[in-house]
Amino acid sequence: MKATLLNLPLRLPHGAALRNRLAKSAMSEALGTYDNRPTPELVRLYRRWGASGLGLILTGNVMIDRRALGEPGNVVIEDETDLAMLSQWAQAATAQGAAIWVQLNHPGKQSPKGLNAHTLAPSAVPFREDMAAFFETPREASTTDIQDIIERFGRSAAICKKAGFSGVQIHGAHGYLVSQFLSPHHNRRSDEWGGTPENRRRFVLAVYAEIRRQVGTDFPVGIKLNSADFQHGGFTEEES
To answer: Is this model's pTM higher than 0.70 or not?
Structure first.
């Protein structure tokens, strides 16, 4: 195959190298068990993707808290209970030369009614009228909640590294919790976690710092970020 830019290896800032510049973006597979554990079906799917020649494969929507699901069938990584199956999942891609990053997420208030006992968000802002039938008005996250979530992101990332995944991606887009903190529409707090752009960025920067603390300096950490959230008074392209 004639060499092109897409075929060339790509070295990332922390030293890891991708074999080429082709990547599969995250898509939520919903192939976890009823109690949100990884499955052989995920291993089989990612072995197939790993054999396709991609340089980077991103998983879809892995949650950091079993109490905060985005949809049925999400895999949750809270502890090392499923380390063996997670390792099989990672190896399905890496054994064939691809890098595989786990997309880590917390849905915040963007979770269907009845899926979780309750939802939380930066502020208790309800959904617009046409969406209110599907989503509950969340409660405002306390500072204790916020610190717990930050630590969970770090712990989940560390388990991913131990399982043999190549990196992680913070899901900061599509209206989930990180995106909610960034948006002045969803985040109307008056404490250090809201208000100014600097304060609204504090949460995602704290999540990154905690992940980096737990995985070290050489493990790739990325972020999926919207250019705008298309909400009146929301996150803008300029801020992104």
So the answer is: yes
